[in-house]
Amino acid sequence: MVLSAIPSEAEAKQAIVEGIEKLRLTEDAATVPVYGSHYASQDLPKYEIPDEAMPREIAYRMIRDELTLDGTPTLNLASFVTTYMEDEAEKLMTMCLPKNFIDYEEYPVSADIQNRCVCMIARLFNISYRSGRQPVGTSTVGSSEAIMLAVLAMKKRWQIKMREAGKDASTPNMIMSASVQVCWEKAARYFDVEERFVNCTAERYVIDPEQAVDLVDENTIGICTILGSTYTGEYEDIKGINDILEEKNLDVPIHVDAASGGFVTPFVNPDLVWDFRLSKVVSINVSGHKYGLVYPGVGWCVWKDPEYLPKDLIFNINYLGADQASFTLNFSRGASQIIGQYYQLIRLGKVGYRSIMLNITRIADYLSAALQALGFLIMSKGGGQGLPLVAFRLDMDQEYEFDEYAVAHQLRERGWIVPAYTSPPTASIKMMRIVVREDFSRSRCDALIADMKFTLETLKTMDAKRIRMHKEHIKHLNNTNKQSRRSSTWSITENHSLQGKHGKTHGVC
Question: Where is the composition biased (Polar residues) (predicted)?
Answer without folding.
Answer: 479-498
